[in-house]
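User: Hi! I'm working on a homework problem where we have to compare a predicted structure to a textbook description. Could you give me the structure for the chain below?
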Amino acid sequence: MNRYWFKLALVSLFAPFFLASASYLPNQQEQPTAAELKYSRVHSLGSGYTFDPRDGWQTVNISDLSYKYSPRRVHKVTKTSAPKTWYKNLADPVKTTIKNVFKGLEGIGKAEDVTITWYTGHDLLNPSCWKESVWAPTDNSFACALTLEGWTPKPECFQFLELCHGTERCVFVRVVDTCAGCAKGSKHVDLTKRAFSELADLAQGVLTVKMRRATEPLEWAETLWGPKMKN
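Assistant: Happy to help. Predicted structure tokens:
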């Protein structure tokens, strides 16, 4: 009986300390919004789809060209994938049909071939489409920077683009910055790591893909694209 009361006394003595320490435990990771889940997925146009210029397609290049960066910013490409986040908890690849999922966000206009690359770190800071630094993309955003000079006419700031590596791997990104290091006159789209990795392995480096302009989505995800412009 004495042992029982002794244990009860110990519990009563230390219980407040356990309750106090519990309040310092980290909260569960913030859950993604419906829009973030929807627009961070690769989508498919279907195996029988044909890239017709009349549907707005262009060919562009993507890469990790070293001339864009100072020596301290050259990215050493390895076979490892992008950092794991809640985005990566989605099935990989996650393929969905545009009509059912991407309501309000669809490709339009003339298509062309472009080069794509990926950028990270300090290069993400201070995107030039805003006069003041109000937002900067992260590695998990779906944003891009375009050639600074010589690409005419090129997509404007805050426009959405649809990029496709074949018909089975397509993503939507928003123009938020310019790429001063991209070759003058080139049709070059510099992507965040997450957007690039949905189209190809980061180790692939340089890639030519199809691009066309896209409409704005009906649902907004600031973590993916930055603040929405006011009308």
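For your comparison, note the following. The chain has one domain: 34-224. The two ends are 76 Å apart (CA to CA). Good luck with the assignment!
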